[in-house]
Amino acid sequence: MTGPARPTTRRTVLRAALGAAGTGLLAGSAAADARHADRGPEGLVRIATGETDGFYAAFGRLLAAQVTAAYPRLSCEVVNSEGSVANVRLLRARRADVALALSDIAWAAYGGTAPFGRRVPLCAIGRVYENYVQLAVRAEAPLHTVSDLAGRTVSLGAPASGGAVLGDRLLRVAGLTPGTDVQVRHLLMPEAARAMRAGAIDALLVAGGVPLPVLSGLDTRPGIRLLPLSGLLPRLRAGLGPEGAGLEAVTVPAGAYRETPEVSTIGVANLLLCRPGLPSPVAAALTHVLVRRATRLVPAPALGTQFLDARSLISTGAVPLHPGAVAAYRELHG
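== 31 kDa immunogenic protein ==
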């Protein structure tokens, strides 16, 4: 299996990519779903996602709906949270069965490195899509690089989000010390939007699909611009070691936010994680849904290419695939 194609000037919409990548797997999906539903697992699956109006939650709601449609005896509960770090903690506390998390956070948890004090037992169902790190400033602000944020106030997202961890690292590799050179706030997306409109913050960082509703709202008032981030990628990867392997340069296409130009930023692979004790039939059912119903798992506004295709689902890096997922992928590939 190969990883995802390198980003282009305007990345192909996921629905088109899936048509090319997963044609063989998607053939006969309706009959296959019905067959699996007859003997499928039953019970409750709690899916930890993210903030209510974010990309994680939108994906989680679609996943829950498609799991129940394919396997009527499986009911799903979407658990909203602050994001990746919170989701790993929910898995560890057995308050969620599966969860979304940025790959660098997932690999840090699996290895027991910061921001986790000890190793968290994890498995993966698949590498489901790519998050775009987006650092927005007011359109008229004299801010053009991350280092220009010196003396400014920036929201890095909810305290237990993967974006907050990555944002802190971005500031540091740009030569800025959070709390000294830059005043950092950790605001939920609606709070960050209100603070940006009020002028209480100069920039906000979010990670998710393109476009993100919180930024689309700000684009009409007061008007925003995205700062380029890909130039910091080599130093960011060097500081992360193996955990940096899930980061790559990606492009936010021109016009994603009203009249914003094309911007090169950082993409982070996103994993669907689970507890190692998740029953294999449930893990297999989730895998079948990811592959067979992939085109129904794309939140409506998404423009950027995601990873939800047959070639890249199994590329979960340091976190091993759940045995039930492995069996399902083998079945799907014949």
